[in-house]
Specification:
The protein is an alpha+beta fold and about 120 residues long. The protein is built from three helices and two strands. It has one domain (about 25-115). The chain is extended and about 70 Å long. It starts with about 30 loop residues before the first helix and ends in a 25-residue tail after the last helix.
């Protein structure tokens, strides 16, 4: 009688955000969940939306300087999912569009019309 073949049991390769070797706290760990909850409790509204005069709850925590090993509270920012996605894409070199508001004014804070 032949033994059934056993599948290769090596661990899966890390991908996406988990693959960054600079990350010191895994995103699925209890330590990150506590840190995330603390940041969102301190900053319940999206910082970027607040700067544009909008009220949107913060749902994501962003490393402001882009370094996932820097988990200082001063570096962690509460953002809504849309703002966090835009910032992450911009940090990785993508061109990001913000669109216009109901009055036709560009919503991009870096647009020349919005510079003070």
């Amino acid at each position: 009688m032949r033994k059934p073949a056993t599948p290769n049991r090596r661990p899966a390769n890390r991908s996406g955000r988990e693959a960054d070797p600079r990350r010191t706290i895994p995103l699925n760990s209890a330590a990150w969940q506590r840190l995330r909850a603390s940041v969102l409790a301190d900053e319940p509204l999206c910082r970027d939306c607040s700067n544009r005069g909008l009220i949107e709850p913060a749902t994501d925590v962003d490393h402001h300087d882009g370094d996932p090993s820097n988990n200082d509270m001063d570096n962690l920012v509460g953002l809504c999912h849309s703002c966090h996605s835009r910032k992450t894409a911009r940090d990785h070199g993508a061109r990001v569009g913000y669109g216009c508001n109901a009055h036709g004014m560009p919503m991009d804070p870096a647009h020349p019309w919005n510079r003070r």
